[in-house]
Amino acid sequence: MRAPEKSLSHELPGLAADVLERLRARSPRVHCITNNVAQAFTANILLAAGAIPTMTLAPDEVASFIAGSEALLINLGTFDAERREAIDIALVTALDERVPWVLDPVFIERSEARARYARELVAKKPRAVRLNATEFAALGGSAADARTLADYARGNLTVIGLTGEADLVGDGARFTTIHNGHPFMARVTAMGCAASALTAACHAIEADAYVATAAALILLGVAGEVAGARARGPGSFAVEILDAVHGLDRATITRHARVT
């Protein structure tokens, strides 16, 4: 089988700018079941982008929050009983209400129980899976490249957004590489979690899951470069990237985005 063709790449910076404009205009509600280390930073990234985050895990109210949301993030960073119960309730509601959801299978390479649960969640058809290369190897059983990402995305009817030194996005038919970002992004906790939350926010207002996933990673990558140029180190970077996301505009996105 041939590797998937790279398509839409030259259009994606403009499409990412379109997605951001619509996100700000609609302010979608994004419910995040995420790890306790990431909650505040994740919420602040969503607010900076123009979305409205919620984070409740309470079993007697999480279904109501999902029903009133435009997107759902499921992040496995804190793999405790409370979050697993909330995830199970949330997915029933999300599937019933057709709320798009994104999976972030954090640290599944460290625990077989976590990896097994992530595979069960993939079977419930997330719109996208945002992860890194180590997590992809644990989830899909092979190293990440254009062919294996395409096979996995096609076989599971999802989009893969794989982040790293370069970000890869594929849906089995289309594939692109995003060359934006900054080294400080790997030095701030919850940056990947925030990328997944932003991906969910983009899915709230963009029906094409491939475009939504690529747009989110372009937006955060460009913001990372802008923030990195201002920051003195990881501490100031964590603040600067919030300002950079808030200040993104079409000119900045199209000038800085490097997509192939």
Structure description:
This protein has 260 residues and is of the alpha/beta class. It has a single domain (5-256), classed as 3-Layer(aba) Sandwich (UDP-N-acetylmuramoyl-L-alanine:D-glutamate ligase), CATH 3.40.1190.20. It is 53% helix and 15% strand. It contains 11 helices and 9 strands. It has helices spanning 12-26, 39-49, 62-67, 81-97, 112-122, 133-140, 146-156, 191-205, 209-230, 234-247, 250-256; strands spanning 5-6, 29-33, 52-54, 71-75, 101-104, 128-132, 159-163, 167-170, 174-178. It has a 9-stranded mixed sheet with strand order 1-9-8-7-6-5-4-2-3, sandwiched between helices. The longest helix is centred in the last third of the chain and has 22 residues, at 209-230. The chain is globular and about 45 Å long.
Structure at a glance:
The chain is built from eleven helices and nine strands. By secondary structure, the chain is α/β, with parallel strands linked by helices.
Task: Give me some keywords for this one.
260 residues; alpha/beta; UDP-N-acetylmuramoyl-L-alanine:D-glutamate ligase; nine-stranded mixed beta sheet
Top CATH class: Alpha Beta
Q: Please compute the radius of gyration using only Cα atoms.
A: 17 Å
Order of helices and strands: EHEHEHEHEHEHHEEEHHHH
CATH architecture: 3-Layer(aba) Sandwich
CATH homologous group name: Ribokinase
Tell me the count of domains. Answer: 1
SS class:
alpha/beta
Shape, principal axes of CA atoms: globular
Distance between the termini: 21 Å
Helix fraction, binned, reads: 40-55%
Q: Compute the number of helices.
A: 11
Sheet with most strands: 9 strands, mixed
Q: How many E strands?
A: 9
Question: Would you tell me which CATH topology applies?
Answer: UDP-N-acetylmuramoyl-L-alanine:D-glutamate ligase
Report strand order across the widest sheet: 1-9-8-7-6-5-4-2-3
> Could you list the spans in which at least 5 consecutive residues all have pLDDT below 50?
none
